[in-house]
């Protein structure tokens, strides 16, 4: 699939390193979860390679599926610890989520604390950037371990809610006549995850946002931090299992940002590490208008199958649907490099 993708877009050939330190799940063509994860992985790898063609890509696979709650999460953490211990890279691109509701019990809270300590350690080391999708169900998500029932009230997802990671929301990016237009992603195909955490208090870097935002935050961590194209109807093409298709979600927005940061690392000559302080420094400066496309229309309310959950509106400045906004990379990269260094 990668070879066909690369040839189609005239990209350099790449050999993706795949590592399974915990073992490999048995192939099963009838297992929807295995096939779904395979498609997600292909999406990540192809989008990263298209935007950062010189970057090395390592895929870490788990023999255990992740759904909601702590299921599969300990194994995923072991993979990330393995990557750090073996110095396999500088950026984590990850799109798995579990709702805060399903992690509210004692076992879930212990897992959240362990993950958070790990991500804080990475942030303090200033060598890794952790990018996480905010979710695809707008202001709601699943409340049961089987992932069959959505919350009737607003909730957010872990690990996007962790203050030491960069949460990536979704937009719909359209080419209209002579210009591009971008709105918040929210329609029948899904919506950008976003809202306010019940687990984590507002981090210092968000306290620099203006008073109208602080009133919404109410002392809580707000997500997402940033956004990129995620609408399946405006999505980039991928080649999976011998077929061209479009696939979106914050699972597409996250590797988009991972590639952008890979280019920034190369341009800066060193890993930018934990980028949130730099992002919010730009967000509260006059550079924000040249470095980000401010998304000011659309929302992430959920209204399907008889369930209505009122979400949040995209407005000028930071909002709980698209964060600071979508990247304008040519201007953003040098400014982010400078902001991280100051």
Task: Please characterize this protein's 3D structure.
32% of the residues lie in helices and 21% in strands. The mean pLDDT is 95. Helix 7 packs across helix 9 (329-341). The longest helix has 20 residues, at 32-51. The chain is built from nine helices and 19 strands. The strands form eight sheets. Strands 3, 5, 7, 8 and 13 form a five-stranded mixed sheet that branches. By secondary structure, the chain is an alpha/beta fold. It starts with a helix and ends with a helix. Strand 9 (186-187) and strand 10 (190-191) form a beta hairpin.
List its salient traits.
342 residues; globular; 19 strands
Give the amount of beta strand, in percent.
15-25%
Structure summary, number of beta strands: 19
Helix content class: 25-40%
Shape: globular
Structural class: alpha/beta
